[in-house]
Protein backbone atom coordinates (compact mmCIF):
# COMPACT_ATOMS: atom_id res chain seq x y z
CA UNK A 1 0.00 0.00 0.00
CA UNK A 2 1.58 3.31 -1.04
CA UNK A 3 5.04 4.04 -2.37
CA UNK A 4 8.35 4.23 -0.57
CA UNK A 5 10.57 7.22 -1.20
CA UNK A 6 13.64 7.66 0.94
CA UNK A 7 15.08 11.16 0.81
CA UNK A 8 18.54 12.42 1.71
CA UNK A 9 20.46 15.67 2.08
CA UNK A 10 18.60 18.84 1.09
CA UNK A 11 15.48 16.93 -0.01
CA UNK A 12 15.26 15.24 3.40
CA UNK A 13 15.76 18.49 5.32
CA UNK A 14 13.18 20.21 3.11
CA UNK A 15 10.60 17.46 3.76
CA UNK A 16 11.38 17.45 7.50
CA UNK A 17 11.05 21.25 7.65
CA UNK A 18 7.78 21.26 5.69
CA UNK A 19 6.13 18.59 7.82
CA UNK A 20 7.43 19.66 11.26
CA UNK A 21 6.79 23.39 10.78
CA UNK A 22 3.38 22.80 9.22
CA UNK A 23 2.18 20.34 11.88
CA UNK A 24 3.96 22.51 14.49
CA UNK A 25 3.01 20.55 17.64
CA UNK A 26 4.54 17.19 18.42
CA UNK A 27 4.53 14.75 21.28
CA UNK A 28 8.03 15.26 22.73
CA UNK A 29 9.15 12.01 24.40
CA UNK A 30 11.99 11.65 26.92
CA UNK A 31 13.25 9.00 29.35
CA UNK A 32 12.91 6.45 26.55
CA UNK A 33 14.52 3.59 28.48
CA UNK A 34 11.66 3.44 30.98
CA UNK A 35 8.06 2.55 30.31
CA UNK A 36 5.89 4.36 30.14
CA UNK A 37 8.28 7.00 28.78
CA UNK A 38 7.57 10.65 29.50
CA UNK A 39 5.71 12.57 26.84
CA UNK A 40 4.17 16.01 26.45
CA UNK A 41 3.02 18.27 23.59
CA UNK A 42 5.62 20.80 22.46
CA UNK A 43 5.51 23.50 19.79
CA UNK A 44 8.31 23.68 17.22
CA UNK A 45 10.03 27.06 16.98
CA UNK A 46 11.81 26.19 13.74
CA UNK A 47 13.64 23.58 11.71
CA UNK A 48 16.99 24.98 10.58
CA UNK A 49 18.89 24.37 7.33
CA UNK A 50 20.72 21.39 8.90
CA UNK A 51 17.49 19.70 9.99
CA UNK A 52 17.81 20.56 13.70
CA UNK A 53 14.44 21.06 15.39
CA UNK A 54 14.29 23.88 17.96
CA UNK A 55 11.98 24.32 20.98
CA UNK A 56 11.65 26.65 23.97
CA UNK A 57 11.44 25.00 27.37
CA UNK A 58 11.48 25.75 31.08
CA UNK A 59 14.78 25.06 32.85
CA UNK A 60 12.85 23.60 35.77
CA UNK A 61 10.74 21.22 33.64
CA UNK A 62 10.82 17.44 33.94
CA UNK A 63 11.74 17.38 30.25
CA UNK A 64 14.94 19.35 30.81
CA UNK A 65 15.84 17.20 33.82
CA UNK A 66 15.26 14.01 31.80
CA UNK A 67 17.34 15.31 28.86
CA UNK A 68 20.23 15.97 31.26
CA UNK A 69 20.02 12.30 32.34
CA UNK A 70 19.59 10.91 28.81
CA UNK A 71 19.72 13.07 25.67
CA UNK A 72 17.85 10.54 23.48
CA UNK A 73 14.39 11.82 22.51
CA UNK A 74 11.58 10.91 20.15
CA UNK A 75 9.25 13.41 18.48
CA UNK A 76 5.92 12.23 17.09
CA UNK A 77 4.01 14.53 14.71
CA UNK A 78 0.53 13.90 13.30
CA UNK A 79 -1.70 15.98 11.06
CA UNK A 80 -4.83 13.90 10.68
CA UNK A 81 -6.60 16.35 8.37
CA UNK A 82 -4.09 15.67 5.58
CA UNK A 83 -2.79 12.28 6.78
CA UNK A 84 0.77 13.50 7.27
CA UNK A 85 2.93 11.94 9.98
CA UNK A 86 6.52 12.24 11.12
CA UNK A 87 8.62 10.21 13.55
CA UNK A 88 11.94 11.75 14.67
CA UNK A 89 14.49 10.09 16.94
CA UNK A 90 17.58 12.03 17.95
CA UNK A 91 19.73 13.75 20.54
CA UNK A 92 18.58 16.79 22.51
CA UNK A 93 20.84 19.64 23.61
CA UNK A 94 19.87 22.40 26.06
CA UNK A 95 20.99 26.04 25.62
CA UNK A 96 20.70 28.84 28.18
CA UNK A 97 22.76 31.56 26.50
CA UNK A 98 21.07 34.87 25.68
CA UNK A 99 21.99 34.87 21.98
CA UNK A 100 20.35 31.47 21.33
CA UNK A 101 17.27 32.48 23.35
CA UNK A 102 17.07 35.76 21.41
CA UNK A 103 17.43 33.93 18.08
CA UNK A 104 14.73 31.31 18.81
CA UNK A 105 12.27 33.51 20.76
CA UNK A 106 8.75 34.08 19.45
CA UNK A 107 6.07 36.43 20.85
CA UNK A 108 3.81 33.44 21.52
CA UNK A 109 6.37 32.14 24.04
CA UNK A 110 5.41 34.94 26.44
CA UNK A 111 2.35 32.85 27.35
CA UNK A 112 4.72 30.39 29.06
CA UNK A 113 7.43 32.81 30.19
CA UNK A 114 5.79 35.86 31.77
CA UNK A 115 9.07 37.79 32.02
CA UNK A 116 9.74 37.31 28.31
CA UNK A 117 13.17 36.54 26.86
CA UNK A 118 14.85 37.63 30.08
CA UNK A 119 13.01 35.06 32.21
CA UNK A 120 15.78 33.05 33.93
CA UNK A 121 13.73 29.89 33.40
CA UNK A 122 13.88 30.09 29.56
CA UNK A 123 15.99 27.48 27.80
CA UNK A 124 16.21 26.39 24.19
CA UNK A 125 16.28 22.74 23.16
CA UNK A 126 17.84 21.63 19.89
CA UNK A 127 16.98 18.15 18.66
CA UNK A 128 19.51 16.76 16.21
CA UNK A 129 17.72 14.01 14.26
CA UNK A 130 19.41 10.64 13.89
CA UNK A 131 16.47 8.70 12.44
CA UNK A 132 13.46 10.25 10.69
CA UNK A 133 10.53 8.50 9.03
CA UNK A 134 7.53 10.13 7.36
CA UNK A 135 4.13 9.18 5.97
CA UNK A 136 2.53 11.56 3.49
CA UNK A 137 -0.79 10.73 1.85
CA UNK A 138 -0.97 12.90 -1.25
CA UNK A 139 -4.72 13.08 -1.69
CA UNK A 140 -5.78 13.45 1.93
CA UNK A 141 -7.46 11.12 4.37
CA UNK A 142 -10.98 10.89 2.94
CA UNK A 143 -9.83 10.11 -0.58
CA UNK A 144 -7.27 7.65 0.77
CA UNK A 145 -9.86 5.86 2.91
CA UNK A 146 -12.08 5.55 -0.16
CA UNK A 147 -9.19 4.16 -2.21
CA UNK A 148 -8.31 1.70 0.54
CA UNK A 149 -11.94 0.54 0.71
CA UNK A 150 -12.16 0.15 -3.09
CA UNK A 151 -8.82 -1.65 -3.03
CA UNK A 152 -10.15 -4.08 -0.44
CA UNK A 153 -13.22 -4.80 -2.59
CA UNK A 154 -11.27 -5.43 -5.80
CA UNK A 155 -8.30 -7.00 -4.05
CA UNK A 156 -5.75 -4.44 -5.29
CA UNK A 157 -4.22 -1.58 -3.29
CA UNK A 158 -5.05 1.87 -4.67
CA UNK A 159 -3.49 4.14 -2.02
CA UNK A 160 -1.24 6.89 -3.41
CA UNK A 161 0.57 7.65 -0.17
CA UNK A 162 4.31 7.97 0.13
CA UNK A 163 6.42 6.96 3.07
CA UNK A 164 10.12 6.71 3.65
CA UNK A 165 13.20 7.42 5.65
CA UNK A 166 14.69 10.93 5.73
CA UNK A 167 18.48 10.98 6.01
CA UNK A 168 19.23 14.52 7.21
TrEMBL record:
InterPro entries in the record: Split_barrel_FMN-bd (IPR012349), Stress-Dev_Protein (IPR052917), YdaG_split_barrel_FMN-bd (IPR038725)
Coiled coil: none
Pfam family of the protein (one): Pyrid_ox_like
Residue intervals of the General stress protein FMN-binding split barrel domain: 11-158
Name the UniProt record assigns to this protein: General stress protein
Superkingdom in the source lineage: Bacteria
Gene3D superfamilies xref list: Electron Transport, Fmn-binding Protein, Chain A
